[in-house]
Design brief:
Blueprint lengths: L8 H9 L5 H19 L2 E4 L1 H15 L14 E5 L26 H8 L3 E6 L11 E2 L3 E2 L15 H8 L5 E6 L5 H6 L3 E4 L23 E6 L5 H8 L26 E4 L10 H16 L3 E4 L8 H10 L6 H5 L9 H9 L7 H9 L7 H22 L3 E5 L20 H8 L4 E8 L5 E7 L5 H15 L8
Parallel strand pairs: 2-3, 2-6, 9-10, 9-11
Antiparallel strand pairs: 1-3, 4-5, 6-8, 7-8, 7-12, 11-13, 12-13
Helix pairs in contact: 2-3, 9-13, 9-14, 11-12
């Protein structure tokens, strides 16, 4: 693989700034990689290669006239963007057939900020239908395949991002996460992914978007092949934009200040419901053992409330959501879809919607029929958050599996629909969480772990990710 495809965005920006390599060379190397792997993995669903080449040429010309200290942090560096975010001139279908001809006329806030920092988007990447499932498949763009084994899933809903970064086609990208949509794709595709503290990054300009208090559970953040890109990107995209009412100002601290010695580590092997595979358990334990060997205080525990993760997540989201999913699916039709009718149509191959979306539309009213039950789990979520904050402490982390197993085969999630419990519960906690790749298992599929901390401690989870990258090697490029 071209050495440029192995470097972080930070390193590529430094080389471009110092004229060791041109932006055009870097962009061309990544375009060539995408053209090679995309026919196999179907991650980039619409490219803007011509525009990217023109922007790279302009970047190289600009560098001749300005001093290095005035160059934006990611000047001339290519990237990719999840298709649910507005990117001027690019589609914004979010996997919904009714939106397939919708072209963005402006950039989402996070996209605008990363472009202002000099990054050059190469295209947009695949999602699940309306970003509501953990396999990236829809009736607009089809299915995205795992670069480590195309028979396996890439996760959702930022699955295209995870896949193209894992395949070496992009140094980093922007994704969103309300139940694990950054972290599962990062894990399944062997790269780093960071779900920021709730309310840190505006969600403005993505579709669909959460409502009311649920906006605090929806996080926008980076996926990257190298951990050193996470905090610089986060600093760029963080902060209020005057449009997303949930976003607050945080002072992001330096990951370099994080010392493993003295770190409080809460190691939670499983949630007590979804059994974790032996290879993932072993990988997480190796991290715990390594941290302990470096002076961290490690305590392995289990928490009873984690058994209710899915009920807590769904109740917390549903209690704040007024727009029904069937209404979102009915865009362009003038009315809500009929889930039963769509199910019949799907059986005959005539529905524009995917099975997970239809089933969700079919059952979404059930929790609202039991308001007391919903309130019980919303309250339990608040109790769990308080309990975890006390356990983790101001200088601590929580180690937790990102999923019960490595990336499953295509369609397997249909038979185990609630395994996203491991990521979803941390959205409700509003914790910052970094997924750290830990090499490959015996079958060549990525291993990894979630590193979480209390709200505002993004620097700690990223600091630990940087340490783990040194210790365990980080991203292993997919050999496509």
């Amino acid at each position: 693989m071209d050495k440029l495809l192995l470097l972080s965005g930070v390193k590529l920006a430094e080389m471009i700034r110092n004229k060791e390599v041109s932006s055009q060379e870097v962009v061309e190397a990544h375009i060539a990689r995408i053209q090679k792997v995309n026919p196999i993995i179907n991650a980039v669903v619409k490219d803007r290669f011509d525009q990217a080449r023109a922007e790279a040429k302009h970047a190289d010309e600009t560098l001749k006239t300005i001093p290095p200290e005035q160059v934006p942090p990611f000047f001339g560096v290519p990237c990719t963007i999840k298709e649910c975010f507005q990117l001027t001139g690019m589609p914004n279908a979010s996997g919904l057939v009714a939106r397939k001809n919708l072209i963005s006329k402006e950039d989402a806030t996070a996209v605008a900020r990363i472009r202002k920092a000099g990054a050059i988007p190469l295209g947009v990447t695949n999602t699940s239908e309306l970003c509501m499932w953990y396999e990236s498949y829809n009736k607009v763009y089809g299915r995205t395949n795992n670069p480590y084994n195309p028979k396996h899933i890439v996760g959702g809903s930022s699955g295209g991002e995870g896949a193209i970064i894992g395949a070496g086609g992009s140094p980093f990208g922007i994704g969103s996460d309300i139940g694990g949509s950054i972290r599962m794709p990062a894990f399944f595709n062997g790269v780093f992914g960071h779900k920021p503290t709730g309310t840190l990054v505006p969600a403005t300009g993505q579709h669909p978007i959460a409502e009311n208090e649920a906006l605090t559970y929806l996080a926008t953040g980076p996926l990257a092949r190298r951990a050193e890109d996470l905090m610089p990107i986060l600093r760029i995209i963080a902060g209020p934009d005057g449009k997303d009412p949930s976003t607050r100002e945080f002072k992001l601290r330096d990951p370099a200040s994080v010392k493993v010695s003295g770190l409080n580590v809460i190691n939670i092997p499983d949630d007590g419901v979804h059994k974790v595979s032996a290879d993932l358990k072993s990988a997480q334990q190796k991290v715990a053992d390594y941290l302990q060997s470096k002076g961290a205080m490690v305590k392995t525990i289990r928490l009873e409330k984690l058994k209710s993760s899915i009920d807590i997540w769904s109740s917390s989201i549903d209690s704040e959501t007024k727009t029904l999913f069937r209404t979102l699916l009915g865009e362009g039709k003038g009315k809500d879809i009929s889930p039963l009718w769509e199910l019949i149509k799907l059986f005959f191959g005539a529905s524009e919607h995917t099975l997970p979306s239809i089933v969700l539309a079919l059952i979404e009213n059930l929790p609202r029929m039991l308001p007391s039950r919903m309130k019980k789990f919303v309250d339990m979520g608040k109790e769990l958050q308080k309990e975890l904050i006390e356990l983790i402490g101001p200088n601590g982390i929580m180690l937790y599996p990102p999923f019960p197993s490595v990336a499953p085969r295509h369609n397997a999630p249909l038979f185990n629909p609630f395994q996203y419990a491991y990521t979803a519960i941390l959205n409700i906690m509003t914790f910052p969480v970094t997924v750290v790749p830990l090499g490959l298992n015996k079958d060549g599929l990525p291993l990894g772990v979630q590193v979480a901390s209390i709200p505002g401690n993004d620097h700690i989870t990223i600091g630990v990710a940087l340490e783990m990258e040194k210790a365990f090697g980080g991203w292993v490029p997919a050999e496509l």
